[in-house]
Predict the structure.
Amino acid sequence: MNLSIDDVRVVLEEIIPIKVGAEVSSIYKFRAGNTIWWSSDSGLIVKEKSPAGFTLYSQVEKFAKDLSDRRLFDYASLPFFKSNKMIQNPETLNTLKVKVNGFPLQAKLYENSTVILKDSILTMQKIEVQILKEKSYQLPFKGDKFDRYLSPDKWVVSDYKPLQDTGVIYARSSKNDAFLFANYLKSYVFNLVRLRPLFTLSDSRGFLDSLSGDYLEKTVMFATYARAGGLPTRLIGGFVYLKGYFYFHTWPEVWFNQWIPLDPTFVQFPADVTHIPLKEGNLEDITSIIKDLKSVTIEILEAS
């Protein structure tokens, strides 16, 4: 029997910065012949494209064994781009004004919010915590004006009894005060989700199988408990600034006589003004815009 070993040339083609939680990590893209793979900082292969044309993704065991059809979320291919200005302390900003090109901005998204749209320019304005406290109210929210933002959907399964009961309990433990409830959930959800980016979308009931995820799962879980407790909550997709770059991100907004951004990933209530909202809807809606964001440019006009 003859054995032979051929030389294999491995090429590092690209180092891709990715946002994991509120920090920046890296994905390394390698090629050896017709095989391409992506590795994490720790050397774990998270994605592999074979010469046969199919792609393999690393997944938690529970989801890997689940034969149900899942929607793919390829976090290794998300859009990002360098900011034209550095921001040292985003949380201290009162105003961020940006010009957005390459994406159709919908005026309805910015009605009754802290964001002003004029032509293709968005101005995000900080709202003080004291003002939010003064705008607080007793839960559940009264009236049918926001039924859509108090009701379950395909992803926010707020009528699943264990999740529904938990939301109601946490609202009561917050004295059914909207501000106290939102502020509590911000930290609770941050600690609940074990940080691990996933390649599939999961509803809030499915999340309980792994307790793992990143900003998608934190957004969905916050909305689940908040809606169960009677606090109108909507899901937002867009960009966030982090260490010199803009990254795709999701976060919830809660109703306090206007839509207020809140971020359980960055543990912020309200969220800082570098959160640039581009799409509102369910989880599938806000992740569907990813392919349209690759040609977007954002120019910072003012950061003060």
